[in-house]
Design brief:
2 copies of one chain form a homodimer.
Chain A lengths: L20 H8 L3 H8 L9 H14 L5 H8 L4 E6 L8 H13 L3 E6 H6 L1 H9 L5 E5 L3 H13 L2 E4 L12 E4 L1 H14 L5 E5 L5 H16 L9 E3 L4 H13 L10 E4 L2 H13 L9 E5 L13 E4 L2 H12 L8 E4 L5 E3 L11
Parallel strand pairs in A: 1-2, 1-3, 3-4, 4-5, 5-11, 6-7, 6-8, 8-9, 9-10
Antiparallel strand pairs in A: 10-12
Chain A binds a DNA duplex (30 and 30 nucleotides) through helix 2 and helix 4.
DNA sequence: CTTGCCTGAACAATCGATTTATCATGACCA
DNA sequence: TGGTCATGATAAATCGATTGTTCAGGCAAG
């Protein structure tokens, strides 16, 4: 047992890199370029069926997987899309993420996560993510003030699609994918009107945010058609959080001096606000839906598990994510604005809304 | 205004690729390799301070960002980590994701999302993600039966860290990062015991799942120390969902024939189950915490907004994500098991638990 | 019998950064 | 003056796949 005492006498030559195209080509007794063309089903390739079969066979045999870095370098295409999220803890946009992820996967793309705050504060991260050619395109959420201002700059460096809310600036810097916000709140309002509510209020996000303007519009439209109006004293505009919903309802309720001069139903600008409103109602001993009906925009997994379960309208977030990816992969004119109207917003009537009681 | 009428008379030679290292080197009047070494702060580089300054200056001036594909090809390192998630809609693991994302970013890494179901069903996606050298390492959630069986295979192909729950198989295939599950439920139980509860039940996930075994152990330990036991008729083991929590409480309540022979407090195996339990209690007119105290594992953003707000114990999910990334970046022996005990689980006492009432 | 065309395939260049090996220059010492 | 050595920098090879160009051979037409 003396000879060959070395422990690693003949490890296969290529240990790290796995199987290369050259290995496949060698096994199939063809050149690397030909193997590449066969494996990529190049329509212009001219090879006998036997040759093709040999190449495919060899690739299968060796478990060949193309090296993505090499492919990327040559083709200037990473197979990655960036998704810049604002607040991942919010349940609202997970569906959007899921939709984007699924559609990306269907095209053999993967998603890389970026964070709004990080990109704003960490220059290094920004450079790597935006300028480093790390991704082929970017999906960003509009409507986040400070970040909106940099979207134009980003869109110049990289194909970009904005989802959800258009930046405030008037010039269109990138294609937009959005839900039919107006239809959504209109639907909620009409639901409440049908239940006999006449005085309906709104607790929503910042008054001048693009999203709020649209959602508020939907409420106003539906009310106007029914001959009613949205009164200033029945609205509160804070942020998009549960805490804001709670504070908003407390503020409104503070104005209610008697049981007659007050709204019988309130709409929450998003599901977090709706949750906060339910909470505030419980704290203030306002019976829902007995004294007050509550409905909100966005249907999330939790809506039906709340007590009482929350009436909502669901936006096609998943489809928005899918569409955003599709637009990204088909380079779209930056002026294009896609409103997802199929499927339309859908009403989920639950226990938090009921027929208006006569005061 | 006739001359120069062409709109794009002299676009710079390199339009697509941006600034290359060669451009920087040329501007600084040095060779590309030297520029590379200076920019990467190679300790072995020998260059005069003036030369270094010139290179750095030129890079800054031109806005040079290294081409990641080229770097990756040469270094066999992508700068990406894969995070394989099971159900992104669940709020529970978002903190883990956030922790991982933050720590990755701090090391100039980015996260790519994979989906358990997709990797199980889509062979192409699996090959690209796992075998394609698309990522340098992988964080996977253990405890998802079918997927667990492939973790060993994955771990052979790629540096891997398992978070949360160990696969059932006894051999350790990759380092593990987990919270102190036993301490968490022990803490909840002790909180209830301190409130005077003596008979405490448990509604949790599948009985033989690794996570449940540990959580149940914590309950049993604390009860035993106080001279009590966990009765079989006070437990239900279904899935980890809100629906299961609801069904679990309904099952248990169905056994309660009089007000004396029943538990005064129940622990939910996770926050979803806790939410379902609150819902079932409301439906069954069981006052919480009057008739029944309810507490659950996992503190999420919603816990404090529920009615009543839910007592929970929070696990250090964020830190787990951070640690998982760190382990991945420092190639760790696969036998290592890291229990995050700093910070320890933390109790959030809220309105759903109260002093036990004498029956 | 040669020219020309088509088929089947190989050759060579390219993507951009890194890294190993090599070369020039000047200082210093014998 | 010649030789050694440290210093400063360059040349060339490499990572692996793709793509434009070229080449050899076979067959048909002139």
């Amino acid at each position: 047992m003396q000879g060959r005492s070395k422990e690693q006498p003949h490890r296969p030559r290529r240990q790290r890199g796995g199987v290369r195209l050259a290995d496949v080509a060698a096994a199939a007794q063809v050149s690397a370029p030909l193997a590449s063309r066969v494996l990529n089903a190049d329509p212009n390739v001219r090879a006998t069926p036997e040759t093709k079969a040999r190449v495919l066979e060899a690739a299968e045999q060796l478990g060949y997987v193309p090296n993505i870095a090499a492919k990327t370098l040559r083709q200037q295409r990473t197979g990655l899309l960036g998704l810049v999220v604002h607040n991942l803890s919010s349940p609202i946009y997970l569906d959007l993420l899921q939709g984007a992820r699924t559609e990306a996967a269907a095209n053999n793309y993967f998603l890389v996560l970026g964070d709004v705050d990080e990109l704003l504060t960490d220059d290094e991260a920004y450079r790597i993510f935006i300028n480093g050619k790390r991704v082929d395109g970017l999906i960003v959420q509009g409507g986040h003030g400070e970040f909106d201002q940099r979207i134009a700059e980003i869109a110049r460096a990289l194909p970009t699609v904005i989802v959800n809310a258009p930046p405030k600036s008037t010039d269109t810097v990138a294609p937009l994918v959005a839900p039919d916000e107006v239809a959504a709140t209109r639907m909620l309002t009409e639901h409440l009107l049908a239940l006999g509510h006449a005085r309906i209020g709104l607790i929503s996000g910042p008054h001048d945010s693009p999203t709020n303007l649209l959602r508020e519009q939907g409420v106003r439209d539906a009310l106007a058609e029914a001959g009613h109006t949205l009164r200033d004293e029945d609205t509160a505009h804070l942020t998009w959080s549960a805490e804001a919903g709670r504070a908003g309802l407390r503020t409104l309720a503070g104005r209610w001096e008697n049981t007659r001069d007050r709204p019988t139903a309130l709409i929450g600008g998003n599901s977090l606000i709706g949750i906060g409103m339910l909470r505030a109602a419980a704290e203030l001993d306002i019976a829902v839906p007995g004294d007050l009906s509550i409905a909100a925009v966005h249907d999330t997994w939790i809506s039906e598990h709340l007590v009482p379960s929350l009436t909502t309208v669901s936006l096609p977030l998943r489809e928005m994510g899918e569409t955003a990816v599709r637009l990204l992969l088909t380079d779209t004119p930056r002026t294009q604005r896609t409103i997802i109207s199929d499927p339309p917003p859908r009403l989920h009537a639950r226990a938090s809304t009921a027929i208006a009681r006569e005061h």
